[in-house]
Design brief:
- It contains 13 helices and 9 strands.
- With 324 residues, the protein is an alpha/beta fold.
- It has a single domain, classed as Glycoside hydrolase/deacetylase (TIM Barrel).
- Strands 1, 2, 3, 4, 5, 6, 7, 8 and 9 form a 9-stranded parallel sheet that branches.
Length: 324
């Protein structure tokens, strides 16, 4: 993914400028989504809708594997999982850079797994973000973590039950992500998290975790949590699950993931799930405008242009507004 100089926030490319105009849709739908395509902006959205309709018949499952970087062997086994898995790599770890490069090389998606302060004061390691840092200290550490992985498309919180409850620090985080065209995934390590809410306020594309797969790394427990995640996918049209590079988790997913498509479910990277929400929001807004202005040519939205996305869009609104 081509990026501009992260150290100069003002140097935004044309694509980025278009994107922020499109993100205003979030204020209408209660979500923040990624940038729409050029086709949508030029008014040829019907073709994009027809293309999306084929994939819209499949529900979307986002799987994130957290905590890569400390162990090279377990990291490599995790990267061998089939399909569109997103990997969250801890910065400043012995094998983080190597695993991020490998993930990118084999077509996976990479996130920065940023260590954030916990309520019980658990050690964060190098570069941990805490509430006692000054604004400049916080920014320096966050940017150093982002620069560690140039392949990264976004970040999520590593631990963070304390920091994700703090609006000030979340605002500092989202301000930097907005300038750098990066998304945020709220791991929801606290029921009182404000991370997704603040991300929306800053127009930062974001998702929230629905299920942790392996808080109990027993295979039977993982299976129960995975079935819970699939139930949420079927209900909402999309859901996000987070696992870890435990042997039990990787072995389970290696067997389970190839069976998804037969169940009408497809894996999606975080960025793809966010893009899908942006396209859905754009089409729904266009349809609403046509209802208000019937003199506009309504044929461009007929038969396949905007009918298949309603359930996914409605579930996406719930995902971002409730954080459940």
């Amino acid at each position: 993914m081509k990026r501009w100089n992260r150290g100069k926030p003002g140097a935004r490319p044309a694509k980025h400028q278009r994107g922020f105009a499109a993100l205003a849709l979030g204020a209408v739908f209660g979500i923040v989504a990624a940038f729409p395509s050029a086709a949508e902006e030029s008014g040829t959205d019907c073709l994009a809708a027809a293309t999306a309709a084929g994939s819209a018949s499949y529900d979307k499952l986002v799987i994130i594997i957290d905590d890569l970087g400390h162990n090279l062997h377990s990291g490599r086994k995790a990267l061998a999982l089939p399909g569109k898995i997103t990997y969250a790599v801890i910065p400043f770890t012995p094998h983080g850079k190597k695993l991020a490069r490998t993930a990118d090389a084999v077509g996976k998606e990479v996130m920065v797994h940023a260590p954030m302060a916990t309520q019980d004061g658990a050690p964060l390691g190098v570069g941990g973000l805490t509430a006692d840092l000054s604004r400049e200290e916080f920014r320096t550490l966050l940017l150093a973590a982002i620069e560690e992985f140039p392949q990264a498309r976004g970040i999520n919180n590593h631990m963070g039950s304390d920091l994700t409850e703090r609006r000030r620090q979340m605002a500092w985080t989202m301000q930097e992500l907005r300038w750098r065209d990066l998304y945020f995934v709220d791991s929801r390590t606290s029921e009182n998290t404000v991370a997704a809410t603040v991300a929306a306020e800053f127009r930062v594309p974001n998702l929230s975790r629905q299920v942790f797969l392996d808080n109990d790394p027993d295979r039977a427990a993982i299976d129960e949590r995975f079935e819970e995640l699939l139930a949420k996918v079927r209900e909402r049209g999309m859901a996000v699950g987070i696992g870890h590079p435990y042997p039990e988790t990787i072995d389970y997913l290696r067997e389970a993931l190839p069976q998804l498509e037969a169940q009408g479910i497809r894996l999606a990277f975080v960025s793809e799930a966010i893009d899908a929400q942006a396209q859905i929001a754009a089409r729904r807004l266009q349809r609403n405008n046509l209802h208000e202005h019937p003199e506009t040519d309504s044929e461009q939205l007929a038969d396949g242009c905007g009918q298949t996305e309603d359930r996914v869009a409605d579930s996406s609104v719930r995902m971002h507004t409730t954080g459940s």
